[in-house]
Amino acid sequence: MNLVEDFNDYRSRMNEKISSADNLILKRLFNLDTNCYAPGEVDQVTKEMIGLACSMVLRCDDCVKYHLGKCKELGVSDAQIQEVFSIATLIGGTIVIPHLRRAVEYWEALSTAHHE
Question: For residues 18 and 26, is the Cβ–Cβ distance under 8 A?
Answer without folding.
Answer: yes
